[in-house]
Specification:
The protein has 193 residues and is an alpha+beta fold. The protein has six helices and eight strands, in the order αβββααββββααβα. The strands form three sheets. It has a four-stranded antiparallel sheet with strand order 4-5-1-8, with helices on both faces. A two-stranded antiparallel sheet has the order 2-3. Strands 6-7 form a two-stranded antiparallel ribbon.
């Protein structure tokens, strides 16, 4: 059985032409490798984080220290995934400003900006750069604390561009209610059907 490049090609879930460095709100979900419950457990609808889950929470809370143009909103670490809202603000005159909603549904990147970057290089303030940094920091800290060669994350992550405040409020509710719905959550390998 051969495995050629076509078998390993992953379809991108990113919006084609969308500039993920633009000001706006983003709902992200990051799953543990093989969706294993490595961050803790849910007991009676309440989240109980283990040491790895505490590392995830600490690294998430540090995002604005490393990316000052960001603001964090609702967030939860689940046994095998993480949900959170990141707001990227526009920087003008040394001050941050911006709305939660995306500026345009699918804005186009400028030709100059996209051609100036080397292949594989991410804009420093973009959502992909933030998520890569977050996942890398969590993996490094878990390995330093005895996780050795443990693979922590699945490849990539899911993101949703938050369109407006109604969308944001729905997402906040979903995040807050997530532990109580764990028994039927599609991310739960032992979910009741």
């Amino acid at each position: 059985m051969s495995s050629g490049p076509a078998e390993h090609h992953r379809r991108s879930v990113r919006l084609k032409g969308f500039d993920y460095a633009q000001a706006g709100g983003y709902f992200v979900t990051v799953c543990a490798d093989k969706r294993r419950p490595v961050f803790g457990r849910i007991s009676e609808g309440k989240l109980v984080l283990n040491a790895r889950g505490q590392i995830v929470r600490a690294c998430w809370q540090e995002i604005p220290r490393h990316f000052p143009q960001t603001e964090l909103d609702a967030f939860v670490v689940m046994p095998n995934h993480v949900h959170g809202v990141i707001v990227i603000h526009e920087q003008t005159d040394g001050r941050l400003s911006g709305d939660v909603g995306a500026q345009h549904a699918v804005p186009l990147q400028s030709e100059k900006a996209s051609s100036a970057r080397a292949f594989g290089e991410l804009p420093a303030r973009s959502l992909p750069a933030i998520m890569r940094s977050f996942k890398s920091a969590v993996t490094r800290r878990i390995r330093e604390r005895g996780g050795r060669r443990m693979r922590v994350w699945q490849r990539g992550y899911y993101e949703h561009v938050i369109r407006n405040n109604d969308d944001l409020n729905d997402i906040r509710r979903y995040i807050v209610d997530n532990p109580a719905r764990w028994a039927t959550d599609s991310e739960n390998p032992d979910a009741e059907t």
